[in-house]
Amino acid sequence: MTTDYRKQLLYLSALIMDMCVGIVLFAIPLFLIERLHASAFIIGLTGSLGALGYSLFCLGTGRLSDKLGRKKVVTIGLGIFISAYFLIPFVRSLFPVFILVILGGIGMSMFWPPLQAWVAESTEKKRLIESLGIFNISWSVGLMLGSLLGGILFPLGSGVPFYFAVGQTVVLLLIILQLSEVQKRPLPEELKTADENILIDKTSFLFIAWMANFVSWFIVIMLRNLFPVLAVNLEISPRVLGVLIFLIYFSQTGMFILLRRFRGWHYRIGPLLFCQGLASIGLIIGFFTSSILLFGISFILMGVSGGMTYFSSIFYSLDSLSAKGKKTGFHESILGTGALLGPLFGGLAARYYNLRAPYLLGLILLICAMLLEVVIYHNAKTVNRRKRKNL
Fold first, then answer.
1. Which of 180, 188, 233, 290 sits a CA distance of 20 to 30 A from 301?
2. Taking 50 as the threshold, does the pLDDT of residue 199 lie above it?
3. Angle at the Cα of 60 (from 57 to 61), degrees rounded to 5?
4. Cα–Cα distance between 247 and 64 in angstroms, integer?
5. Between 39 and 273, where is the model more confident?
6. What is the pLDDT of residue 130?
7. Closest among 87, 229, 221 to 165, alpha carbons compared
8. What is the pLDDT of residue 39?
9. Is the pLDDT of residue 274 over 80?
10. pLDDT in tens, 102-142
11. Is 2 left (phi over 0), alpha (psi -120 to 50) or beta?
């Protein structure tokens, strides 16, 4: 199998997987409301449990795939994901749903870090940003399609989205079984040393990107889980809801296309802070409005910020020569932790205050993160100046 053909199938795999994830993430809150009459807190808790399984296991699955191989770990993960979401339409109480979404999160944790490392291993270092751009566009388009399909499929029956997603995941499993592993070659010692020296200077940007991406996923997954409750209260139909969520990933995909083409944002804090500022404006709009149009603008602004933070996080995690599975594991675990805490704390805010409170919570967290990012950046600049003086 040629390297280019393998990469094309990996990109396709990312698209199919997140299309399926987008469908089930769209369907679960509505399923809980329709079938089990769940509150906003329970819906938020359910989203957090899935993220808990994901974030905890991501810490080990990337490293595990470094040892056992990408294909084996990804295949097991898909099997778990298929089993979990096939069973959800059959449950009649909350506890089995909790268990199954945790298993679904574990399945995803065995898919994404190994797949990202697989893409990076199939790419020359000088073409990493190009490959990551196509990869990011692929999974983001998948989420766009998933959001739209969820809005179309759910009115046909609350179990239909899950069956459709499971069927597509089976197709994905067949694709993965056709792929070959990348033959690993030991790095020359001089390259290892050079890479370590570079990473010392890049560490501050990696921490900043991880923090920014944590906050983005905290906010986006919180709203993705809880906005359907507000939408029901505002009498927004499932199809319109699907289009609104689609706009998050549409704008995110647009950012991935721009970031792939332009390199001026590498290791600069200004573009990151600007995009986070746009997300702040989006949260303020969402807090005050009941207009579908303004909700759409709000989601677009948050999608732009999410595209910037995710691309920064994965690029800085993989812009090195070794332990790619381990580093993508940390990258995914951090965003998974954001996805865990967002619905949980957002659900509490909605329960004890109102359905608009999660927007205010996200805004406060985002402003605090931006201030801390500036502090880390300026401290790193001070340390680097001192190092140069001592040379």
1. 233
2. no
3. 80
4. 35
5. 273
6. 85
7. 87
8. 87
9. yes
10. 999 999 999 999 998 888 888 776 778 888 889 999 998 99
11. beta
Is domain 3-180+192-384 annotated with CATH 3.40.50.620?
no
**Angle at alpha carbon of residue 273, lines to 270 and 276, rounded to 5°:** 150
| Spatial contact of 113 and 62, defined as CB atoms under 8 Å apart | yes
Q: Residue 119 and residue 46: Cα distance in Å, rounded?
A: 31
Burial class (CB in 10 A: 0-12, 13-18, 19+), 29: buried
Q: Determine the pLDDT at residue 324.
A: 62
Length of the chain: 391
Judge contact between 73 and 25, C-beta under 8 A.
no
Q: Are 224 and 362 in contact (CB under 8 A)?
A: no
What pLDDT does residue 322 have?
Answer: 57
Supply the DSSP string of 208-273, one letter for each residue.
Answer: HHHHHHHHHHHHHHHHHHHHHHHHHHTT--HHHHHHHHHHHHHHHHHHHHHHHH--TTTT-HHHHH
Q: Rounded CA gap, 318 and 179, in Å?
A: 22
Residue with tokens 């940003």: 129
Q: What is the pLDDT of residues 13-40, one digit of tens each?
A: 999 999 999 999 999 999 999 999 998 8
Judge contact between 88 and 97, C-beta under 8 A: yes
How far is C-alpha 205 from the chain's CA centre? 19
Query: Quick one: which of 98, 108, 97, 21 has its CA closest to 56?
Result: 108
Q: Name the nearest CA neighbour of 132 among 369, 319, 376, 326.
A: 319
Q: Which of 320, 323, 303 is nearest to 311 (CA)?
A: 303
3-state secondary structure of 356: coil
Q: Among all chains, which residue has been given the structure tokens 């808990």?
A: 52
Contact 151, 349 (CB under 8 A): no
Q: What CA–CA distance (Å, rounded) separates 334 from 340?
A: 10
pLDDT given for residue 188 in this prediction: 47
What's residue 195's pLDDT? Answer: 46
Domain range list for the chain: 3-180+192-384
Rounded to whole angstroms, what are the CA distances from 27 to 32, 35, 55?
9, 11, 21
